[in-house]
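Propose amino acids for all 444 sites.
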């Protein structure tokens, strides 16, 4: 064998050895990769079997352990809280040109030939959400303007209205999916109409709204029997009584039904005793009498214990996507003493609203009220009114309403431009501007 042949044989052996070593190295690397993949697969299986809310952390030995995740951070002060603002102003003209520029029997649009601030409101609400586990909430409605005089300006209703005048509502709430209870001062849901103009069909309010209770102070509860029926119960100081002026506690029993998605019906019975058992002396201090924050009083003997009964029913029907119809009927009977002759107020109202375009709607209201004994107006009379309203939604949260209204009576009652001369009617034209903003959804 030549030297050259030996060299070729040695090269072949070396090449084979190198190839074998390279193959062995690849096998080792492949085996290591398979082991790593098996380890990763085991880790993923452990994670998928871990309890919800747990996270994996690496230990110094590179093995993974499971520990509970930290609790979520508590919500901030204003989380889930809405702060909402409303401006409601108007200019009204009374064709009777009454002395003093006063529109009689109006709840809010009380001024004639005057640019007027009906109400300015701040509504702060932390609403409950039982479905999300939030069972406690609260609401505060601060109100300023002419409407405060209507809502809480009569010492015949409570001894010290001025100290509560700007607090329209203030209450706390506890709720579950079926049961809700509020404690504090809340807006009355007796009657179809409410306080905030943007949620009403017309700009002006009806006689019935002006007559029926505006608010109550106490506790109210609602139990949702099912999606179509809710039962309500209240116990409170009285009608328009933040502070009680007698020892009787009024009560309401009511049902709110929605047998169809486009139809709702509410029926209420309210039992009250709406007469004070003391006489107040807000501007004097007769000696020897007890006082409450500087106001003297003495008992009425015998104390009036006659009851007030309110039977209230109203319904709303969305007849089509554009047409809404509503009606209200009320009967109220009141006695001074249990054996006194009663005074009565009964009446009803019919409403219709039609959405002409997405921004423009027209609405009407026709109403009748019988005031026997002057419980509402101070005179025995039969009252009627018809109202036509156009509603233009100029922008989201901004509406302009033009309204024509005529009030009738079978007695000369309404003011004129001659002192002492009364008329059986008054006609008004009103422009109302309502602007509101905030994150609160639905009716206020």
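Proposal:
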């Amino acid at each position: 064998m030549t030297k050259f042949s030996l060299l070729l044989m040695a090269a072949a052996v070396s090449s084979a050895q190198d190839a074998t070593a390279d193959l062995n190295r690849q096998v080792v690397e492949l085996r290591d990769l398979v082991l790593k993949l098996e380890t990763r697969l085991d880790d993923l299986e452990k994670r998928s079997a871990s309890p919800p809310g747990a996270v994996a952390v690496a230990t110094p030995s590179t093995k993974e352990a499971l520990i509970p995740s930290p609790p979520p951070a508590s919500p901030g002060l204003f989380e889930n809280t809405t702060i909402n603002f409303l401006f409601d102003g108007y200019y009204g003209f009374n064709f009777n040109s009454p002395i003093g520029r006063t529109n009689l029997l109006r709840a809010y649009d009380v001024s004639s030939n005057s640019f007027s601030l009906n109400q300015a409101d701040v509504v702060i609400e932390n609403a409950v959400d039982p479905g999300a586990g939030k069972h406690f909430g609260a609401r505060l409605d601060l109100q300023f303007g002419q409407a405060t005089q209507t809502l809480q300006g009569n010492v015949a209703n409570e001894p010290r209205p001025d100290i509560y005048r700007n607090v329209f509502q203030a209450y706390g709430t506890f709720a579950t999916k079926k049961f809700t209870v509020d404690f504090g001062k809340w807006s009355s849901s007796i009657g179809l109409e409410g306080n905030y103009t943007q949620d009403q069909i017309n700009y002006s309010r009806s006689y019935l709204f002006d007559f029926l209770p505006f608010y109550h102070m106490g506790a109210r509860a609602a139990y949702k029997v099912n999606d179509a029926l809710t039962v309500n119960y209240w116990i409170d100081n009285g009608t328009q009584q933040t502070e009680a002026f007698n020892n009787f506690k009024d009560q309401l029993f009511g049902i709110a039904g929605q047998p169809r998605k486009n139809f709702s019906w509410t029926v209420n019975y309210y039992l009250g005793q709406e007469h004070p058992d003391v006489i107040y002396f807000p501007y004097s201090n007769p000696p020897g009498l007890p006082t409450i924050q500087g106001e003297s009083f003495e008992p009425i003997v015998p104390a009036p214990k006659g009851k007030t009964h309110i039977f209230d029913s109203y319904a709303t029907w969305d007849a089509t996507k554009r047409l809404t119809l509503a009606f209200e009927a009320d009967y109220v009977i009141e006695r001074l003493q249990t054996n006194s002759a009663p005074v009565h107020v009964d009446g009803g109202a019919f409403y219709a609203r039609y959405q002409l375009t997405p921004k423009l709607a027209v609405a009407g209201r026709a109403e009748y009220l019988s005031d026997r004994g002057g419980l509402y107006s101070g005179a025995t009379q039969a009252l009627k009114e018809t109202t036509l309203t156009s509603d233009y939604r100029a922008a989201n949260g901004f509406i302009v309403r033009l309204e024509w209204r005529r009030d009738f009576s079978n007695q000369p009652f309404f003011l004129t431009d001659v002192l002492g001369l009364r008329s059986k009617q008054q006609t008004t034209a009103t422009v109302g501007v309502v602007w509101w903003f905030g994150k609160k959804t639905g009716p206020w």
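Confidence is low (pLDDT under 50) at residues 3-13, 52-67. The chain has two domains: 13-49, 82-437.
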